[in-house]
Design brief:
The chain is α/β, with parallel strands linked by helices and 339 residues long. Helix content is 33%, strand content 19%. The strands form two sheets. An eleven-stranded mixed beta sheet has the order 1-8-2-3-7-4-6-5-9-10-11, sandwiched between helices. Strands 14-13-15-12-16 form a five-stranded parallel beta sheet, sandwiched between helices. Helix 1 packs across helix 6. The protein is globular, with a radius of gyration of 20 Å. The structure holds threonylcarbamoyladenylate and magnesium ion. Threonylcarbamoyladenylate binds next to strand 5, strand 6 and strand 10.
C-alpha cells in the first residue's frame, strides 16, 4: 500500500481534512500526540480497528486506548463516569492521563479485547485533537510502532516502522513528553496506576490522596499489555543503578569492547569521561530523560551497537515511567553501591 505522508506543523485545516477522510473510510492514520505517535482508526468501526492489530503485529489480547477531542464523545463510550474521574478529567485533560471506564455497547469488542472496561484519554496535542474533531469519531490508537519496539517520538520512527502498511502518516514534529500516558484504574479501593507515564504519581496523589502502582508480573500483568517484552531496541540493554553506577558503566562498556562488541552508553546528566562507541546524555531532569529515552534507544540501533549500557534514573516524576520502560527493555540488571 502507498502511504501518504502529510506534513503539518502547526495544524492546517485542509490537510487535516484529508487525514480525517482516511479515518472515516476505515483506514489507518498515524498521528502525533504529546506523548508518542499513535496509530489511529475509527474506534467505533471494528473492521478498521482490526487493521491496527495487523499493521503493528500486535497480540490480540492487548486492548487499545480510545482518544477523544471533547467530553461529549466520552458519553457515547462509557456507561458511568465515576466522581473521581470527573475530578481528574477537570485537572489533567487534555493531557497524558488515560482513565479506565465501564464500556458501553458502542465500543467494538476488539478495541477492549473482550474486557468490559475501556481506556480513554483526551490528548493535548493540537493535531491529535483536531484530527479527532474533524473525523467526528473517537479514535482508537496504540503507539505507532511495530509491537515490541520502542514507541515512536518523531516521524522518522513511524516511517521506519509503518511506511507501506498504513494509509497515512501525519508529520507533526517531535513529541514533547516522550513516554506514553499514565493508565489509571479507578475501579479499586485505592486508585491504581496500571502503567506509569506522563502524569506522575505525585501529581495524581495531590488530587486523589493515596495512589498505588500495580506491581505487574508476566503471570498477573497490571494492564493486559504489560506482560509482553516491550520498548526494546535490537541491541541488548544493560540497566545500571546504584551509587557507583557510573564506575560500573565504564567497566561494563570496556568489558564488551574488549570482546569486540560495539557499545553504546546512555547516561543521566553530564557525559564526562566515559569511553564507548557512542555516548549520549538523556538529560538531567526526569522530564528530559523521558523525552529523549525512546529516541536515543532507536538512535543506538541506527548506529548499530550490539550492547546499550543505560544509567538508571530516580523514580520520581516521569522517572517512574522511564524506569518502568527500561526494566522492560533490559535483559541485564546491575546495581552497584560500591559495597
Ligand atoms: O500515550 C499513550 O497512551 C499512547 C498515545 C498514542 O496516546 N498510546 C499508547 O497505547 O501507549 P498502547 O496501546 O501502546 O498502550 C495502551 C495500554 C496498554 O498497556 C494496554 O494494556 C492498556 O493501555 N489498556 C488499554 N485498555 C485497557 C483496559 N480496558 N484495562 C486495562 N488496561 C488497558
Ligand atoms: Mg505501545
Amino acid at each position: 500500500m502507498e502511504t501518504e505522508i502529510i506534513r503539518i506543523n502547526p495544524p492546517d485545516r485542509k490537510e487535516l481534512g484529508r487525514a480525517a477522510r482516511y479515518i472515516q473510510k476505515g483506514e489507518l492514520v498515524a498521528f502525533p500526540t504529546e506523548t508518542v505517535y499513535g496509530l489511529g482508526a475509527n474506534a467505533l468501526d471494528g473492521e478498521a480497528v482490526a487493521k491496527i492489530f495487523k499493521a503493528k503485529n500486535r497480540p490480540c489480547d492487548n486492548p487499545l486506548i480510545v482518544h477523544i477531542s471533547d467530553q461529549k464523545m466520552l458519553e457515547g463510550l462509557v456507561t458511568k463516569i465515576p466522581q473521581k474521574a470527573g475530578i481528574l478529567m477537570e485537572k489533567f485533560w487534555p493531557g497524558p492521563l488515560t482513565i479506565i471506564f465501564p464500556k458501553s455497547k458502542a465500543v467494538p469488542d476488539n478495541v477492549t479485547c473482550g474486557l468490559q472496561t475501556v481506556a480513554v484519554r483526551m490528548p493535548s496535542h493540537p493535531i491529535a485533537r483536531e484530527l479527532i474533531r474533524v473525523s467526528g469519531v473517537p479514535i482508537a490508537a496504540p503507539s505507532a510502532n511495530i509491537s515490541g519496539k520502542p514507541s515512536p517520538t518523531q516521524v522518522e520512527d513511524v516511517i521506519e516502522d509503518l511506511n507501506g502498511k498504513v494509509a497515512c502518516i501525519i508529520d507533526g514534529g517531535d513529541c514533547e513528553v516522550g513516554v506514553e500516558s499514565t493508565v489509571l484504574d479507578l475501579n479499586t479501593d485505592v486508585p491504581t496506576i496500571l502503567r506509569p507515564g506522563g502524569v506522575s504519581k505525585e501529581e495524581l496523589e495531590k488530587v486523589l490522596g493515596k495512589v498505588e502502582v500495580h506491581a505487574g508480573s508476566a503471570e498477573k500483568p497490571a494492564s493486559p499489555g504489560m506482560k509482553y517484552r516491550h520498548y526494546a531496541p535490537k541491541a541488548t540493554v544493560v540497566l545500571v543503578e546504584g551509587l557507583q553506577a557510573r564506575k560500573a558503566i565504564g567497566e561494563i562498556a570496556a568489558h564488551h569492547m574488549r570482546d569486540k562488541k560495539k557499545v553504546g552508553v546512555l547516561v543521566v546528566g553530564e557525559v564526562k569521561t566515559l569511553r564507548a562507541d557512542a555516548v549520549m546524555s538523556m538529560g538531567t531532569k526526569s522530564d528530559e530523560v523521558a523525552r529523549n529515552l525512546f529516541r536515543m534507544l532507536r538512535e543506538m540501533d541506527r548506529i548499530g551497537v550490539d550492547v546499550i549500557v543505560v544509567e538508571g534514573v530516580e523514580e520520581k516524576g516521569r522517572g517512574l515511567a522511564v524506569m518502568n520502560r527500561l526494566r522492560k527493555a533490559a535483559s541485564q540488571f546491575i546495581i552497584d553501591n560500591g559495597i
